[in-house]
Amino acid sequence: MSHRFPLRVYYEDTDLAGIVYYANYLKFIERGRSEWVRERGVDQSRLRAETGIVFAVRRVEADYLRPARFDDLLEVETRLVSIGGASLVLDQDVLRGDERLFAARVVIVCLDAQGRAARLPAEVRRAFA
């Protein structure tokens, strides 16, 4: 099951050539992941306050396929690939209509308050599964 998050490219997202600056795709997919988590009923602020657990990006494999430009209407598609004991693997694409502009595989880890790997709580695992 995939999640789609719409966004528009603003002038501030572009570089001198008028295309989306490469690092901004990482911001776009971060927004998409945050909305994916929220849609599944996981309140990250509450999770941190009550358990000390947070999510952090451990790895990103990114492919820049085609440029997005100012005023393009895009969608970030997020799909769960797998759930480990303390990690999630997600595939994320940035799309303009049916055209895939950017593709990433992202590994997210669950960390405790001391920054060490922690098992995903059962209720979070159920929400993501």
TrEMBL record:
Name of the protein in its database record: Acyl-CoA thioester hydrolase
The record's listing under Gene3D superfamilies reads: Hotdog Thioesterase (3.10.129.10)
UniProt-listed SUPFAM superfamilies? Thioesterase/thiol ester dehydrase-isomerase (SSF54637)
Could you list this entry's UniProt keywords, alphabetically sorted: Hydrolase
The record's section on CDD domains has: 4HBT (cd00586)
To which species is this protein native? Answer: Cereibacter ovatus
Q: Which GO terms describe its molecular function?
A: fatty acyl-CoA hydrolase activity
Keyword Transferase assigned to the entry: answer is: no
> Pfam families annotated for this entry?
4HBT_2
Concerning InterPro entries, the annotation shows: 4-hydroxybenzoyl-CoA_TE, HotDog_dom_sf, Tol-Pal_acyl-CoA_thioesterase, YbgC/YbaW
Q: Member of which family?
A: Belongs to the 4-hydroxybenzoyl-CoA thioesterase family.
Q: Hydrolase among the record's keywords? A: yes
